Amino acid sequence: xxxxxxxxxxxxxxxxxxxxxxxxxxxxxxxxxxxxxxxxxxxxxxxxxxxxxxxxxxxxxxxxxxxxxxxxxxxxxxxxxxxxxxxxxxxxxxxxxxxxxxxxxxxxxxxxxxxxxxxxxxxxxxxxxxxxxxxxxxxxxxxxxxxxxxxxxxxxxxxxxxxxxxxxxxxxxxxxxxxxxxxxxxxxxxxxxxxxxxxxxxxxxxxxxxxxxxxxxxxxxxxxxxxxxxxxxxxxxxx
Length: 239
Ligand SMILES: NS(=O)(=O)c1ccc(NC(=S)OCCc2ccsc2)cc1
Ligand SMILES: [Zn+2]
Fold this sequence. Notes:
GO terms for molecular function: carbonate dehydratase activity; zinc ion binding. With 239 residues, the chain is mostly beta strands. The chain has a single domain (3-237), classed as Alpha carbonic anhydrase (Carbonic Anhydrase II, Roll). The chain is 8% helix and 27% strand. The chain has four helices and 13 strands. Strands 2, 3, 4, 5, 6, 7, 9, 10, 11, 12 and 13 form an eleven-stranded mixed beta sheet that branches. Strand 6 and strand 7 (78-87) form a beta hairpin. The site of the ligand NS(=O)(=O)c1ccc(NC(=S)OCCc2ccsc2)cc1 has 12 residues, from strand 9.
């Protein structure tokens, strides 16, 4: 049961601030008050990696403010909880947000929560300003290479090495793109995709298989939700 059936169990699927959306750059309003986003991931500690057969999630220790995103549209620092990817079975589609109708091969989501206003992620996940997700497009060359790299110990993995050169972004109010689809996300989508070079590839590696256990391959099925109605929302652009 794909995205078109989610509304049966999660009526908010037809809500007024659902994600992803199609971003039309020249319709986004440039907001000079939007400061740059600041990422403090230097002391991030990845604690777990899980591969549920159709996505891979790397979780972080979010018991203190060691890895946060702040600035831009955010009034507080938001703590990094996990990151994961969305992709498609064909190289030409897979991202969740689209830009003027065009898809990228994949989209990386760095999920953060507002630990200043809320006590737990679960509480923040149901609040209108509870979560901030940084969306980063991956181009096809990089995505497939990145998916097939190995790392014996991903503990030293720092998502900062995943960032494109420019942190220019679009931002809008939206939701989780998978159930429970809570309308609690301040989306920050970077304009530039990541194109990892060969030499950077050495740094960005991901354990995708369970190693000695049975070869649990990631099925390359689609795990992206199509764009949702804007319903009058404004997309702002950093300069
Ligand atoms: N694709 S997405 O970034 O919008 C995104 C991010 C997180 C999640 N869900 C998470 S982290 O679930 C953790 C369990 C939970 C607790 C309260 S609501 C979900 C779903 C979609
Ligand atoms: Zn996601």
